[in-house]
Amino acid sequence: METYDVVIIGAGHNGLVCAAYLLKAGYRVLLLEKRSVPGGAATTEEVLPEDAPGFKFNLCAIDHEFIHLGPVVEELELAKYGLEYLFCDPVVFCPHPDGKYFLGHRSVEKTCAEIARYSPRDAERYAQFTQYWQQVLNAMSPMFNAPPKSIIDIAGNYNLKKIRDLVSVVGSPIKTLDLIRTMLNSAEDVVNEWFDSEFLKAPLARLAAELGAPPSQKMLGIGMIMMAMRHNPGMARPKGGTGALVQALLNLVKTLGGVILTDQQVKQVLIDDGRAVGVRTANGKEYRATKGVISNIDAQRVFLHLLNPAEVDAADPTLREHLERRIVNNNETILKIDLAMSEPLKFEQYNHRDEYLIGSVLIADSVRHVEKSHTDPSQGIIPDDDPSMYVVQPTMLDPSMAPDGKHTVWIEFFAPYKIAGLEGTGKHGTGWTDEIKNQVADRCIDKLAQYAPNVKRSTIARRVESPAELGERLGAVNGNYYHIDMTLDQMIFFRPLPEIANYKTPIEGLFLTGAGTHPGGSISGMPGRNCARVFLHTQQPVTQRLRDAKESVQSTISSLFRRS
Ligand SMILES: Cc1cc2nc3c(=O)[nH]c(=O)nc-3n(C[C@H](O)[C@H](O)[C@H](O)COP(=O)(O)OP(=O)(O)OC[C@H]3O[C@@H](n4cnc5c(N)ncnc54)[C@H](O)[C@@H]3O)c2cc1C
């Protein structure tokens, strides 16, 4: 039987980040990945080799913002392993049915100038709004980059600029109360408080709702950081696609002696005397872990599918029930459309400029339109009578992703995992069939054609992945690409549940990382890095504590000399 210090279940980007930190600390690490391609929801693949050879598609994540709020890329020196980020500018284009459009640049000033063409008041407010949300972001990001229960780690992440921003948002009782009030609000409440114009409110609501909930959902005002981040630190894509981030991590992990085995689905976590000591895969092979097993898949999957109930109950008699009944994982996921194109989209009625296609294109006609795109899926309804979409033409920023002069289009459409009324039919009893997914995709393309009429005649080939197929590929419960919902009741100290919110579990030697842990889904690498820190603490509590304290002091001193 092969023996390692640590076995990681799943080679998503968080599993790989976690592995890299552990390998750097001298541990022997094995990653077991169920697919033939590592990366989870962060892969780039040539999925239409016959109809569209040479076209590379980001099957899931495309726009990277959160990773630039943390130190992973620099600490792991991923540039040395082949990662190059291309920053988007402009960052977002949202054509409005009345002929207006929102064009967000990386520069706040330039964005305000675009808004001022239609509403000088909203342009002025936008500058104040962005400044406020960037302060909130700076005040909060130190918490993202530390285990939620580690005060030393969190404190060490504050530099002077971040302390100043913290003071500016909570520096007096009124400011603190106002921040709390804002956080209790919904994204819709916040945009209504600040702005008049629908052409501006709708894209802000659509971006906020990328957290996976409708704009009216209370306590998700925090969604406003989604646009603030596009200004600073900015929105970027790895050259060659999101898979290039994974490739750089793979290069690093292999260079450090890590082992990655693909087509290895873990079926069982092995427990000996209450301690996780290894795993068994679907083909019956066992791998031993002398120091720990780390799961890149979420707590529900690990505790309810990969462990015997009696073993879980022996460690915590209420955990299984809490995982079954307390975890919120609504019915919303994504129907994904990828197009191979002979030419770029043309937004003819909007004075087409190719720069519209550098960032993301939002089809979001109003806040109501965005609202329906989220509330319908939660009821099992497909909101395809008037689809709202997130569309990207990745090849405009990075032509290397398609043959010369050709393009790709990436479309995200929120859809139910289970279709109401069709339960028990279709793939995995979700109701989804090839016929239904293609009908929905046709409606999405019809809607996009209202803005970019050339989309149909320029399509060479297309791939449509239904929510049921996406869920199967990722192995995620209900196709949830954030593993569990990103609502406030499941964030920070509550993610995924209070009793397992710090990457450790009641089973000795079993740890959690990935999107289902703090600070949550998206491309950030933060859960992977934070989990590695917690693991190292359990192995070398004194050494690691001293190292953290030293880093805190160094960070505070160096912040005296740097601006941000
Ligand atoms: C269509 C789509 C678009 C998205 N767009 C963006 C975006 O633009 N920007 C952004 O920041 N985020 C985006 N996301 C979200 C983001 O991709 C994910 O939240 C993130 O990639 C999760 O990473 P992870 O490593 O935590 O988990 P995952 O990527 O889910 O990795 C888990 C890994 O475990 C493997 N696995 C599962 N079960 C087993 C098992 N039993 N044994 C072995 N291996 C197993 C899986 O195959 C997978 O490789 C998008 C997601 C989707 C679906």
Fourth-level CATH superfamily of the largest domain: FAD/NAD(P)-binding domain
Percent of residues in helices: 25-40%
Number of domains: 3
Distance between the first and last residues' Cα = 49 Å
Give a topology summary.
Layout lengths: L1 E8 L3 H12 L4 E4 L11 E2 L11 E2 L13 H4 L9 E3 L4 E4 L5 E4 L3 H9 L3 H25 L6 H6 L3 H11 L2 H12 L2 H8 L3 H11 L16 H10 L1 E3 L4 H13 L3 E3 L4 E7 L2 E7 L4 E10 L3 H7 L3 H7 L3 H7 L6 E10 L18 E4 L3 H12 L10 E4 L1 H4 L9 E10 L17 H18 L7 E7 L1 H8 L35 E3 L13 H14 L1 H19 L5
Helix pairs in contact: 1-11, 1-19, 3-4, 4-6, 4-10, 8-9, 9-15, 12-14, 19-20
Bound molecules: flavin-adenine dinucleotide (FAD).
The site of flavin-adenine dinucleotide has 38 residues, from helix 1, strand 13 and helix 18.
Explained architecture:
The chain is of the alpha/beta class and 564 residues long. It folds into three domains: 224 residues, 3-Layer(bba) Sandwich (FAD/NAD(P)-binding domain), CATH 3.50.50; 129 residues, no CATH class; 137 residues, no CATH class. Helix content is 38%, strand content 17%. The chain contains 20 helices and 18 strands. Strands 1, 2, 9, 10, 11, 12 and 18 form a seven-stranded mixed beta sheet that branches. A seven-stranded mixed beta sheet has the order 7-6-14-15-16-13-17, sandwiched between helices. The model has no long low-confidence stretch (mean pLDDT 95). Bound molecules: flavin-adenine dinucleotide (FAD). Flavin-adenine dinucleotide binds next to helix 1, strand 13 and helix 18.
